[in-house]
Design goal:
The structure holds two protein chains of two kinds.
Chain A lengths: L2 H14 L1 H39 L4 E6 L40 E2 H9 L3 E6 L7 E3 L5 E3 L13 E4 L10 E5 H7 L4 H4 L3 E7 L5 E12 L9 E2 L1 H11 L10 E2 L2 E5 L6 H10 L2 E4 L1 H44 L1 H9 L4 H40 L15 H28 L2 H6 L2
Parallel strand pairs in A: 7-9
Antiparallel strand pairs in A: 1-12, 1-13, 2-11, 3-12, 4-5, 4-8, 6-9, 7-10, 8-9
Chain B lengths: L5 E6 L2 E6 L3 E5 L6 H8 L10 E3 L2 E2 L5 H11 E5 L10 H12 L3 H14 L15 H13 L5 E5 L7 H16 L3 E6 L2 H5 L3 E6 L2 E7 L2
Parallel strand pairs in B: 3-8, 3-9, 6-7, 7-8
Antiparallel strand pairs in B: 1-2, 1-4, 4-5, 9-10
Helix pairs in contact in B: 3-4, 3-5, 4-5, 5-6
Classes of the chains: A alpha+beta, B alpha/beta.
């Protein structure tokens, strides 16, 4: 028999007992549906996190703080005073700072120079303390302003406009969407290219203003909701703040962003060097690591449930095909008597199993996409609207294809047992079978 | 089987020869071993001792694909219980040996229609096999046996499930195949049917007890 005829015949046999095929496929449907939804959930969340991560900073950068020497274990008593160690008054710049509850010491200018000598380090940008007074657009109301303090090396998730130009001399700022309406802009797009006034106070208490151009509007994110300035604007604000500052007052930094050449040095050896010199370096994935682990864990558990369902449905396939083999014992005997080879008989039944798998998983995946797509859109505009950019379920054609292929492979394995039994039937015994 | 053939079988120390284009009846009561003898001749079974010779060649050397091809090309089967696929159409049932051989769909259809014409079932081609009467079913089976243009047709109690009128019609068809040069091996317990064959072999308790030529 030609393989095309074998496939056709197998499909016909499948459709012959519709109820049985339908019920078996229903079990697979449930598994494939669940697996499609959970994989879409995983894809949606990791997509969102990767956007969030890129808005946190470049991946080839470490956030460096002074190693915590005052590990205040309960009952360890007070630490000795060290005049050289500068306590950071505002440890943890927004976004890039230490974890909550972690006390950190500030970096001194000497520390910054030390960091520059570490092998593999290309740039060291200290996080300066930015404390502008207000931001104002035209003659609209003034609003308090807190700028991100860390040097920003990544790409922000923008609702309008473009990214910051860090090498230019023009002072630029990116505002979160929440700033747009209060400042007096009519829309996100209307804000782009407009000049805003920013005021800061110098060391002696005198307030000065400067102007910056709004180049972009940033979507709200999980991690950072402060406006971000380019280096020109940061330098200008620091310039005002430090005016009149006595030279005896040391400059302290809460943290620094260290850029490195990923080709020249591995993250782990760089971290080791930093630790040896008394610093702590964290990559973005270190900071988001626990979050991602929790989410991966949840998605993994959901996947496991889907796989359990699939495993159960595999037994359904075995059962269905055993019945089918039993029912068609004489037909198999006849075909073998007429010269049909065992491989073709095996094919006839295993293809039947694969076809049942295809029906179940195909409809399951399709239903998941049809139900999940609108549901996800509804969630994004409703309960999840405070997290713009979060598309909870993302159905990737590749993932769906893989799921369908995996289910078909599982069906083949499940079907191989009954199919082997059919292939090994002795035609004489089969023909005698009543 | 291809040129002036004979099939040679030993069963319990007894020899039997089947000559090309003859009609041979294997006669015996149920349980006498006549079906086993037919299975051995049709290469569906292998003798535990002794050999089946085909054109003087030991059939035990035939295995797997070659054996399957030989059965498919040279043998046709007619069974008492018909063994039709009940939900398939008459045409699909008739075409089965050709499908197994790997003949293309168009030619399968053409040759199956020809075969149906010979058994006068052309108008039932699209009916499901389950809807046919007993006589129609057996005629479908005969069409299925002859569609592949076999050298030998094995018929196991071909009229056993039929009333005498339809039985006679089916007999007529089988013997007309024989007249066209197809070897007919009939297994039956019916002496009247056996009498119509050129040669009869009587089997009892696994032994060939009598062998007689046509009257």
């Amino acid at each position: 028999m030609r393989w095309g005829d074998v496939i056709l015949q197998a499909i016909r046999n499948t459709l012959r007992s519709r109820l049985r095929t339908g019920l078996t496929a229903a079990a697979i449907f449930i598994g494939a549906f669940t697996l499609t939804i959970t994989s879409a959930l995983g894809a949606g969340i990791s997509e969102y996190i990767s956007v969030q991560v890129s808005s946190l900073g470049s991946s080839d950068a470490l956030s460096v703080t002074k190693a915590d020497t005052s590990s205040s274990a309960v009952g360890s008593g007070p630490q000795k005073y060290d005049s050289n160690s500068a306590a950071s008054s505002s440890a943890g710049g927004q976004g890039m700072g230490g974890r909550p509850g972690e006390s950190a010491q500030a970096l001194t200018t000497g520390d910054i120079n030390t960091l520059k000598t570490v092998k593999g380090v290309t740039t060291v940008t200290p996080s300066v303390q930015l404390s502008p007074d207000y931001i104002q657009y035209g003659s609209h109301d003034r609003y308090q302003l807190s700028l991100r303090e860390d040097a920003f090396l990544g790409k922000l998730d923008l609702a309008a406009g473009g990214q910051l130009n860090d090498s230019g001399t023009e002072s630029q700022i990116i505002l979160p969407t929440t700033y747009v309406t209060p400042l007096g802009f009519t829309s996100n797009d209307a804000a782009i290219g407009q000049k805003v006034t920013i005021a800061a106070t110098d060391y002696l208490g005198k307030q000065s203003t400067l102007t910056a151009t709004v180049v972009g509007v940033q979507n709200l994110s999980l991690i950072s909701s402060s406006p971000t300035a380019n280096s020109a604007l940061r330098d200008a604000v620091v310039g005002i703040q430090n005016r009149g500052k006595p030279s005896t007052v040391a400059t302290h930094y809460s943290s620094a962003v260290v850029g490195y050449d990923a080709a020249a040095i591995s993250v782990s050896s760089l971290k080791q060097q930093l630790t040896d010199k008394g610093f702590t370096g964290q990559t973005i994935s270190d900071r988001l690591g626990s979050l991602q682990t929790v989410i991966n864990g949840i998605v993994g558990v959901l996947d496991a449930f889907a796989i359990i369902t699939l495993a159960a449905s595999a037994f359904g396939i075995v059962n269905t095909l055993l019945m089918s083999v039993q029912e068609r014992t004489r037909e198999i005997g006849l075909m073998k008597a007429m010269g049909m080879g065992s491989a073709r008989v095996f094919g006839l039944f295993s293809i039947e199993a694969v076809f049942i798998g295809l029906i179940g998983s195909g409809i399951g995946a399709l239903a998941a996409a049809l139900i999940g797509g609108p549901l996800s859109a509804k969630l994004a505009s409703g309960p999840l609207s405070s997290l713009p950019g979060l598309q909870l379920l993302i159905f990737k054609p590749l993932n769906i294809t893989v799921i369908i292929l995996v289910v078909m492979a599982v069906a083949f394995l499940a079907g191989s047992l009954p199919a082997r039994r059919a292939a090994r039937l002795d035609p004489i015994i089969a023909l005698r079978y009543e | 089987m291809d040129a002036g053939t004979s099939t040679f079988t030993a069963l319990d120390g007894v020899d039997i020869k089947v000559f090309r284009a003859e009609s041979l009846a294997i006669v015996g009561k149920s349980g006498s071993g006549k079906s086993t003898l037919m299975h051995l001749l049709a290469l569906l079974d292998r003798p535990t001792s002794g050999s089946v010779l085909l054109d003087g060649e030991d059939a035990s050397s035939l295995r797997g694909k070659r054996l399957n091809q030989l059965r498919n090309r040279e043998f046709g089967f007619v069974f008492q219980q018909f063994f039709l696929m009940p939900q398939s159409t008459v045409l699909e049932n008739v075409a089965l040996p050709l499908a197994i051989r790997g003949v293309g769909a168009a030619e399968r259809r053409r040759r199956s229609e020809e075969a149906l014409e010979r058994v006068e079932l052309t108008q039932f081609a699209k009916h499901r096999a389950v809807d046919l009467s007993g006589g129609q079913k057996q005629r479908t089976v005969i069409a299925r046996a002859l569609v592949a243009e076999p050298a030998v047709v094995f018929a196991d109690e071909p009229t056993g499930n039929l009333d005498s009128a339809t039985g006679t019609l089916v007999e007529e068809m089988l013997f007309s195949l024989n007249r066209d040069g197809i070897t007919l091996v009939l297994v039956t317990h019916d002496p009247d049917l056996a009498a119509k064959c050129q040669r009869r072999v009587h089997v009892r308790d696994g032994l060939i007890v009598d062998e007689e030529a046509a009257a």
